Amino acid sequence: MKVLKIIIIALVMLSLAACKSQYEVVKEGSDVNAKYALAFECFNNGKYSKAAELFENMSVLTNGTERDDTVLYYWGLSNYRAQDYITAETNFENFLNKFPRSGFAESAHFLRTDCLYNATYRWELDQTPTYTAIAALHEYRRNYPGTVHAAACARMLDDLNERLDRKAYENAKIYYTMEDYRAARVALKNVLKDDADNIYREDVLYYTAMASYKYADLSVPSKQRERFLVFEDDYYNFIGEYPESKYRKELDSLHKKIKQK
Prior knowledge:
This protein is mostly helical. It has twelve helices and no strands. The protein has helices spanning 2-28, 32-44, 48-59, 68-81, 85-98, 105-118, 128-143, 150-177, 181-194, 201-217, 221-241, 248-260. It is rod-shaped, with a radius of gyration of 30 Å. The model has no long low-confidence stretch (mean pLDDT 92).
C-alpha cells in the first residue's frame, strides 16, 4: 500500500511537471504560431497572467508583422484583465504610440483611461493621479465624441471631480475644526473662488458663515459689531442660494441673536 501511494504521488507530480513543461516549452521556443495559439487559449480560459507572459514573449517575434498590433493590444488587455493596471496602462500607451490608426485604437485608448482611473487614490491621499486621469478622459472624449463608453467616462469624471471637491472642502474645513475661524473663512472662500461649482458648495457657504459668526463672537467687544456685519453678509449669501437648506434654522437663530445684541 505504501509503495502504491508513492507511485500515485510520483505520477501526479510527473503529470504536473508535464503540464508545466508544455507551457514552458512553448514559451521558451521560437514557434510563433504555437505561442500565438497558446496565448489565446490562456486568455480565453481566464489565465490572463500566463497570456500576458506569452504575448510579451512573442512581441519581439511578431514586431513588424501583420500580427504586431494584435499581440501588443492583447498583451495590454491580458494585464488589464489580470488587474495589473499600471503595466496595462504602459502597454496601451505604447500601443497607441505605435498604432494610432489600428482597429484596436479606440478600445486601447479607453482602457488606458480606465487604467489611469483605477490607479487613483481616495480623496484623503495625493490627487496627482486624479488630475492625470481626468486629463486622459477629456482627451478620449474629444477624440471619440460618439463613443459607446460615454456614460462610463461621465461616471468616472463625476467620481474624480467629487474627490477633488471633497479634498478642497475638507482641507479648508480643517481650520474650522482647529477653531482658527479667521483662517477658516479665508480658506473656505478660496475653495469657491477656485471652483464655484464645487459640489460641497452648500457646506462651504455654511461653514463660511459659521466661521465669521464664531470669529465675531469671540472678538473683543469693540470689534464685534464690524465682524458681526461680516457674518450678516455671509448669512444673506447663504440663504439667498439655499433658502430650504438643513442649515437654515441654525443660521436664522444666530442671525436673530446678533440682531438682539
